[in-house]
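WARN no homologs supplied; continuing
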Amino acid sequence: MIGLTWTNDIVARSAAPGENALRYLSLLSSAGLVPVLITPKSSTTVLARLDGLVVPGGPDVAPARYGQEPGPHTETSIEDLDALELEFVTAARARNLPILGICRGQQVLNVALGGTLHQHVDHPRWGADPAAPIHEVQILDGTYLRHILRVDVAAVNSGHHQAVDRLAPSLHCAAVSSDGCVEALEAPDLLLLAVQWHPEEMAEAQSSRRLVEGFARWIKG
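OK structure emitted
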């Protein structure tokens, strides 16, 4: 069983055209995982009954969370969601639970562990079809991501306008785009993995299946 952080406010305020918890639930279930929604005000004591944590896509992380004032392009955050996810990432780390971050989830993971974000980047973003690949990413040699995806280049979708700036000390870059955006983070020894794209929107893609199966490997030992 794994926790999936969520609030219904995501649906109304996310930039993702198809943001929907069911897409994440379906993707995770396809790898034999049993997802459980974790919503604001949930107690971290629930982690004692879970085997991992997934932090999905959603709105901007509040700049105050990484010591900055909002810039002109920064969109409204959801305070309860920021608090929930930062608290649960910290608590999951204390229990050595595997964590997977997706888009905003990558940014949350970086901030929770001491990194910062670019509040706005000019980067390819999806149109009406969030499942359509829009650019390629280079998967770095020697990374766990390279091992599980079994490719050195992947075509991915993209819905973000924020990105990792200063890496958290315990995290390593695992993929980059041609414009220099950090497209994936990992720390296999800490059971941490994150991608900046949205595999739940491309559930049939081989890269999406291999990503979640690679995460599930940590869960199942």
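The CA atoms of residues 14 and 41 lie 20 Å apart.
OK
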